[in-house]
Amino acid sequence: MSAITQRMYIGGRWVAAISGGTRQIINPFNQQVIAEVAEGGREDAKAAIAAARQAFDSGVWSGRPAAARGALLYRLAELIERDRETLAELESLDTGKTVEESRWDMDDIAGIFRYYAGLADKDGGDVIESPVPDSSSLVVREPVGVCGQISPWNYPLLQAAWKMAPALAAGCTVVMKPSEITPLTTIKVTELAIEAGFPDGVVNTVLGPGKSVGAEMAESPDVDLISFTGSMQTGKTIMRAASGNVKKIALELGGKNPNIIFADADLDTAVDYALNGVFFHAGQICSAGCRLMVEASIHDSFVARLKARMEKIRLGDGFAEGTQMGPLVSAEHRAKVEEYVRIAREEGARLELGGKRPEAPELKDGFFYLPTLFTECTNDMRIVQEEVFGPVITVEIFSSEEEVVRRANSTIYGLAAGFWTRDPDRIHRMSKGLRFGTVWANDFNVYFTQAPWGGYKQSGLGRELGRIGLDEYTEVKHIFQNHNPKPVNWFGV
Description:
This protein has a seven-stranded mixed beta sheet, sandwiched between helices. Strands 10-9-8-11-12-20 form a six-stranded mixed beta sheet, with helices on both faces. The longest helix has 21 residues, at 99-119. It folds into two domains: 4-253, Aldehyde Dehydrogenase, Chain A, domain 1, CATH 3.40.605; 258-441, Aldehyde Dehydrogenase, Chain A, domain 2 (3-Layer(aba) Sandwich), CATH 3.40.309.10. It is built from 15 helices and 21 strands. It is of the alpha/beta class.
């Protein structure tokens, strides 16, 4: 594919960066340049925010009937379905993931827009009984306003859709900032929003790094809500910046997600899901079940089965038939994974498999890393407690249900957890005892649009998806009307 040139979309116009800056976007599989895009900064972000502010304050979108807003979201879903293959190809070129994974993502994305399109006109407010005679009381939800939306590089368009669809359904205007290294599908969906007929200024896409574009969005008093998915440290920075005008914030900051295997589990199925829970997109998943906790009596058998399957994972070009895992997203990110592997060995974890780059000559130009398995891991190791975000599994041994719940919860994160058992009473106890935003019983890494997604503790604030995901983009207003006002005659009588 020849390199393509892309601009930003601000206030109804495609524009270059004010500075004239550009960035090359590369394919993680072979480091070939696939696009050159505008590289914006604070001034570009200010222009996008101003366009979104004007569009919101004018009422061109928030004042449109909710059913009409929903109709445009339905239209956008149809266009995403129409261009599914183009979007999937762009996503795989940008991220390195297999094109089949990207196709699944596009199906989910179309469904997300369709779901929120259906919700757009379903809330007419709640009438509540007033204690005041001859009066009425109504509680309504109104759009929060201008929303800054910062998406990560691992699932660029999926994560953008989680934010964009409910915000637009609620009547908000948006300024989207994709990761500077994976912007192509967000640019494409912006083109589709234009084709669908969204008014100028309602959807804006600004490109550039977080330290300038993202910082301006977080600090601006003209942004009413900032939604961010990414690292914990950046999330904390956004929280501090957002305090300037006490804007609403929604944060999804990753996780360290235990996958717990009890001795009575179906081991073959649990092994299969352990692989699925980690190795899609080379482990670059916030909900990856990379912390395996295995009951002592089945540990050796489980690890042997897991290792045998891991050895057969086929690395390669995401567009090649038979590829099961692509590269990591960048040289910098691979170096981070390699550092965690080094630290794990230094702290005493036993390397059972992988732990290095592949030697196959056809993979030498990509950012590949072998599926990696560590055993003899303990609760205090950094690789057990910190998010690696790569194709690395750690295995810990536990002896009792009480012990494993305590240890699973001993993390600063609380995004997701899963466990495997045939005991219905244990399913109830474990589901209640695990302090995570999502808990899977006899499954792992399943999500769907109708159910909320988000975490406890330092995994973030707020929820995406589901009805709650729409509520995040609204303010609650109480409207009280006195139908027969009379003087009180308290003062000056």
